[in-house]
Design brief:
Layout lengths: L20 H17 L17 H30 L23 H33 L7 H13 L1 H20 L5 H12 L2 H6 L9 H27 L1 H19 L13 H31 L5 H4 L1 H27 L7 H28 L16 H6 L11 H4 L5 H24 L5 H19 L1 H5 L4 H21 L2 H8 L10 H9 L2 H6 L2 H16 L3 H7 L1 H23 L10 H23 L7 H4 L10 H49 L2 H17 L3
Length: about 725
């Protein structure tokens, strides 16, 4: 008996591009009005301009910035989605197969996403060049021309001025990004291209409209986080809007498959597999939720550095534009909530939710375009808080950007805080993820050690204190404070983080993907089994990297660059935390590794490390030469000790903070060795009981045969 299945007729695609046109026009008018009100188009806004650079620069620079920001976000987000959310290969799940179809062929959405990334990368590069040239024209007051004076000034601007150097770096990054994205198709390669694109955030944050604020470190970090969230959020939405027609077709095919499954002999309780459209939107929704929190939190922090009172939100042009950004962000959050809670769960039920979904996406893109336009104007608007240093700035203020803190006492090391918002965000994210993963495992019925959780959270608390507490404040003015920060990052925090076994938790808690894409779990496995992991987790490499970093850091110009430049300071924190984590992971960690050294080798490495720490500490305490004298010798404090005496105290702290954790690690390594020996002994006993000592009997029989064969001597 046969039965026919009637599939619903495919509906004509809705006119998705007509609904947001009025809102798009309103957004463009709003941006144009902001340009006029703030004086950008009339040349009356920027006090740094020497003279009027001409109408082409006045009009072209904000437009170029707008196009640059939008193209950059689109290009990077497209590569991120291609690397983590879209399957690279079509596979056997395609509804129709042509004679030329190959299971290894590229998925249509994957190919389309990379086409968007390639085109956006080219636009990004051209726009970055335009911003570089027009910014010089604006700052110098010279009209665009091919004269020798303009060319000479431009090359000097690129070579010597921080703004020119930063935008030249953005141009270089964009050009390399656009070149690579046209040739790379492997997920691993796309991952590194996405990381390359995200590095463009660094120079933009360093010369952004908040970088010259009073709290430079907080301004740069909050602006960098803000740009990161905007790139993922805005760029992802633009990519989804451009993928709208392809996603609509895929959603229709998914509904047809769902209808066919519901009328077949499948069990009534069987739930149809979600289509690629629904899966992609859910994955983007997760990224967008994290990006929204990042954008909102970093925007509030950044705004607090630029305005002095809430009244300035309505009484100044800068505050009015900040208020407009806040209202637009709230509107976008509401639309995002509608996506996740109402529209996406109904994608498989009919055509209307899919059409409404892409209409809302286009509306979001229009609102975000207006927000980016307002942000572009903010970069050329003077904030209420003055950006210049006071005329009576202290030596510490001139060197570090901050006034000299109080004389260090025992309580101030714990109560004095200056948040490093980058590491605050990292700590909060890692703590929330770990707790949620543990809760998910327990709800599933699996167990997870409370001691591991406590160790991980305590390690994050130590990391927060060392990056935003007393060590971070005094580490900029005292060598001893810097040494506390350094050794805590390298020897204390990593021990507790490693004992939390985060990789094991991630592999057990994160979902497994079966559609050919790489989620967090798949990327973790790829990193663990990569050649790079085998190299850096080699015990000799880990020990040399751990110990050699100390010698190279303090006795080369690298230390001075770290003290002078904010990026160098953040890279120092990351490097020493990473080297300490890898060193502890190799010696006492329980997470999976390509290979582990034998227990005697671990103790030998620890002993050699303790000896090296002692040698370097003695060299510092007995030295009569001040390290980085131009920095630590010119702070202007009068706390009862000299900079050289403080350096000797730092050497003593290196010895103490290096030896005590090393002894603790030796104890933990010994406990692990003892436990593994006991487990191996129990395993051998069980094997002997199961085989009735067959191995021992064979061994004795071998000696008996040898004795019988040799005979009496």
């Amino acid at each position: 008996m046969s039965s026919s299945v009637t599939l619903p007729a495919r509906q004509a695609p809705a006119r998705l591009w007509t609904a947001p046109l009025p809102l798009t026009a309103a957004a463009l008018c709003t941006g144009l009005l902001a340009l006029i009100v703030t004086g950008v188009l009339t040349g009356t806004n920027d006090p740094s301009e020497l003279s009027d650079p001409g109408a082409l620069t006045r009009w072209g620079l904000p437009v170029a910035r707008f196009v640059h920001h939008l193209a950059m976000a689109t290009a990077i987000a497209a590569v991120i989605l291609a690397a983590v959310a879209v399957p690279p290969q079509a596979g056997p799940r395609r509804r129709r197969k042509l004679p030329t179809d190959d299971p290894a062929a590229e998925h249509p959405l994957f190919a389309r996403t990379l086409q968007i990334a390639s085109l956006a990368g080219v636009v990004w590069t051209v726009a970055a060049v335009a911003v570089l040239v027009l910014t010089f024209s604006s700052l110098s007051g010279l009209e665009l021309s091919a004269s020798d004076s303009f060319a000479a000034g431009f090359f000097g601007y690129v070579q010597s001025i921080a703004t020119g150097q930063a935008w030249a770096a953005v141009v270089l990054i964009a050009a390399v990004f656009a070149t690579l994205v046209t040739a790379v198709r492997a997920p691993a390669g796309l991952f590194f291209i996405a990381v390359l694109g995200l590095t463009a955030i660094l120079p933009m944050a360093l010369v952004g409209h908040s970088a010259s604020g009073d709290d430079h470190y907080a301004a740069v970090n909050s602006l960098g986080l803000h740009l990161l969230g905007v790139v993922i959020w805005v760029g992802g939405l633009v990519v989804l809007a451009l993928l709208g027609p392809a996603l609509s077709r895929e959603a229709a095919e998914a509904r047809e498959r769902s209808a066919a499954t519901s009328t077949s002999a499948a069990p009534a309780s069987a739930k149809p597999a979600p289509g690629m459209t629904e899966t992609l939107l859910r994955r983007y929704s997760t990224l967008a939720g994290l990006a929204l929190l990042t954008v909102a939190a970093s925007g509030i922090i950044n705004a607090s550095l630029r305005i002095e009172s809430l009244g300035q939100l309505t009484s100044t042009s800068y505050g009015l534009m900040l208020s407009a950004k806040l209202l637009a962000t709230l509107a976008l959050a509401v639309i995002g909530w509608m996506h996740r809670s109402w529209i996406i769960p109904r994608l498989g039920s009919g055509a209307r939710p899919a059409g409404l979904l892409f209409q809302l996406i286009l509306v979001e893109v229009a609102i975000m375009a207006a927000v980016i336009g307002v942000s572009t104007i903010l970069g050329r608007t003077a904030p209420p808080v003055p950006e210049e240093l006071p005329p009576d700035a202290t030596p510490a203020r001139l060197l570090t950007g901050y006034d000299l803190p109080p004389e260090p006492t025992g309580s101030l090391w714990l109560t004095l805080w200056r948040p490093d918002w980058l590491w605050v965000a990292i700590v909060v994210f890692l703590a929330a993820w770990y707790v949620l993963a543990m809760v998910r495992m327990r709800r599933r019925g699996d167990s997870w050690s409370v001691l591991r959780t406590a160790s991980w959270l305590f390690g994050l608390l130590v990391l927060l204190w060392v990056t935003s507490g007393g060590p971070a404040v005094y580490g900029m003015v005292l060598f001893s404070g810097h040494m506390i920060q350094h050794m805590t990052l390298t020897m204390v925090a990593p021990i507790f983080l490693v004992m939390g076994s985060p990789v094991t938790l991630a592999l057990r808690a994160l979902p497994v993907r079966t559609d050919g894409t790489r989620g967090p779990r798949e990327w973790i496995l790829w990193i663990v089994h990569s050649r790079f992991s085998r190299i850096i987790t080699n015990p000799i490499v880990a020990a040399v990297n751990f110990a050699g970093s100390l010698l190279i850091f303090y006795y080369t110009p690298i230390f001075g660059l770290v003290l002078e430049y904010h990026v160098g300071h953040e890279l120092m924190i990351f490097h020493f935390l990473a080297t300490g984590y890898i060193f502890a992971l190799v010696l006492i960690g329980q997470d999976p590794l390509p290979a582990r050294p034998a227990h005697p080798m671990r103790l030998i490495i620890l002993l050699a490390t303790m000896v090296f720490h002692a040698f370097l500490a003695v060299a510092m305490t007995s030295s009569d030469q001040l390290i980085q004298a131009s920095w630590f010798g010119n702070m202007g404090y009068d706390w009862g000790f000299t900079a050289l005496e403080d350096q000797r105290s730092g050497g003593e702290l290196m010895w103490a903070l290096g030896e005590i954790p090393a002894i603790l690690m030796s104890f933990v390594a010994g406990v692990i060795w003892s436990r593994e020996d006991k487990r191996e002994t129990r395993r051998l006993d069980r094997e002997a009981d199961r085989t009735q000592n067959a191995e021992l009997n064979d061994y004795n029989d071998m000696f008996a045969e040898m004795a019988e064969r040799d005979g009496p001597r």
